[in-house]
Amino acid sequence: MLRKNIEVPLLDLKAQYRRIRAEVSQAIDEVLESQQFILGSKVQRFEEQAASYLQSDAAIGVASGSDALLLSLMALGIGAGDAVLVPTFTFFSTASSIARLGAMPIFLDIDPENYLIDPKSVEAFLKERCRPHPDGQGLMEPKSRSRIRAILPVHLFGQCCSMTPLLSLAQKHHLHIVEDVAQAFGARALLSQRVSKPVGTIGDLGCFSFFPTKTLGGMGDGGLVATDKKDLADKVRMLRVHGQGSRYHHLAVGLNSRLDAIQAAILAVKLRYLDQWCEERIQRAHLYQNLFSGTGLVRDKIISLPAPGNERSHVFNYYVIRVQQRDDLKQYLRGHGIQTEVYYPLPLHLQPCFAHLGHRQGDYPNSELATSQVLALPMYPELTSEQQEIVVQKIKDFYRK
Ligand SMILES: Cc1ncc(COP(=O)(O)O)c(C=O)c1O
């Protein structure tokens, strides 16, 4: 018998904090005792632990996921006259990082099945809409005459993009790959039948966010760049400290973008639990799947569920379903104490700040449709099965009333 009037938040960070309070307090205390707040041993230790978890040569702590993207693109020397291919259905800073550097984001549509950049759209764009750059190096987008420099796939909601075709396209056309892993720390991409790798270590650089809602969330802002390329790692390290080569000698105009030592200490504690928390998210996704399949709503095509995420290919940072009458359902659930969220209500090509790029409604139909149908349901490692049963029961009530 389900209890009535039980609240189900989208995310309950307090529940996670209760599990690790003592360890977190001790970690913060150690930083306070050391009074070493900027870089130093805690940041270095966390970077080493993150690199070891990711099996990458370098992991560089920065101030946010947005800065991780910005610094990665800067390290590749991307700027005015360049263009980067990016899905239009993602968080804003995936594309703002490109625009911020004076480069052009070229938006592409998503695969409607999984909301991820569709390698077929990338291939079609490169083949049909680009031509060789007049200087003989690489491809150019003819209208803007921008040189295509990179692909920026986003492992949205915790789910890995299909990296193998993107890697071969990048190789064929001499493009870089910068992975946006803000929502997918802990996920693994299957590169062949036997080989899987942590996401964020497949392209040239992987950009992680420690925004508190992420699979590995800090207690404030934070981010990380992972790379196996020494020259790129050195550049990111230099750029995150004002482009400083040696003390007060600046080789480039960089940023002040360092991972805070208190955040690094907290993240080092949380990293130890990341695998367990990802497994708990995957178990909850399976339970949603079982509960929904008993409602008939999937069979009747009223809702569709995310892929099950085998082999860690999805770590369910968000559990996003696709539904009819989305806004009415959201309001109904809110009225019954169930919190949901829409990631994202407007695709990037229709954002006012990108109006100068001249896009119109209808340019990217899969992404536009997704913005009107997606709904993120409560998902976090401590979510109880009773809470999940209530969520599914209320969704069933809404459609069968
Ligand atoms: C897909 C994606 N990219 C980039 C970011 C930016 O990360 P941050 O908020 O740490 O700047 C976020 C998260 O907010 C995100 O979800």
Query: Helix-strand pattern, N to C?
Result: HHEHEHEHEEEHEEEEEHEEHHEEHHEH
Largest sheet: 9 strands, mixed
Helix coverage percent of residues? 25-40%
Count of alpha/pi helices: 12
Number of strands: 16
- CATH class of the largest domain reads Alpha Beta
CATH superfamily of the largest domain: Type I PLP-dependent aspartate aminotransferase-like (Major domain)
Beta-strand content estimate: 15-25%
Total count of domains: 2
The radius of gyration over CA amounts to: 22 Å
Based on Cα principal axes, name the global outline. globular
CATH topology of the largest domain: Aspartate Aminotransferase, domain 2
* Beginning-to-end CA distance, first to last residue: 20 Å
Residue-averaged pLDDT: 96
Bound molecules: pyridoxal-5'-phosphate
The stretches of 5 or more residues where confidence is low (pLDDT under 50) are none
- The SS-based structural class is alpha/beta
Descriptive notes:
The protein is an alpha/beta fold. The protein has 2 domains: 17-108 and 115-271, 3-Layer(aba) Sandwich (Aspartate Aminotransferase, domain 2), CATH 3.40.640.10; 274-400, Aspartate Aminotransferase, domain 1. 38% of the residues lie in helices and 16% in strands. It contains 12 helices and 16 strands. It has helices spanning 13-34, 41-54, 65-75, 92-100, 119-128, 163-173, 230-239, 261-271, 274-293, 326-335, 365-373, 385-400, and strands spanning 58-62, 82-87, 104-108, 131-132, 139-141, 146-151, 176-180, 188-190, 196-198, 205-209, 223-227, 244-246, 249-250, 303-304, 319-323, 374-377. Strands 1, 2, 3, 4, 5, 6, 7, 10 and 11 form a 9-stranded mixed beta sheet that branches. A 3-stranded antiparallel beta sheet has the order 14-15-16. The protein has a two-stranded antiparallel sheet with strand order 8-9. Strand 6 (146-151), helix 6 (163-173) and strand 7 form a beta-alpha-beta unit. Helix 3 (65-75) packs across helix 7 (230-239) and helix 9 (274-293) packs parallel to helix 12. The longest helix is centred in the first third of the chain and has 22 residues, at 13-34. The protein is globular and about 65 Å long. The two termini are 20 Å apart. The relative contact order is 0.17. The structure holds pyridoxal-5'-phosphate. Pyridoxal-5'-phosphate binds next to helix 3 and helix 4. Pyridoxal-5'-phosphate (PLP) binds at residues 64-66, 90-91, 93-94, 154, 180, 182-183, 209, 211, 221, 223.
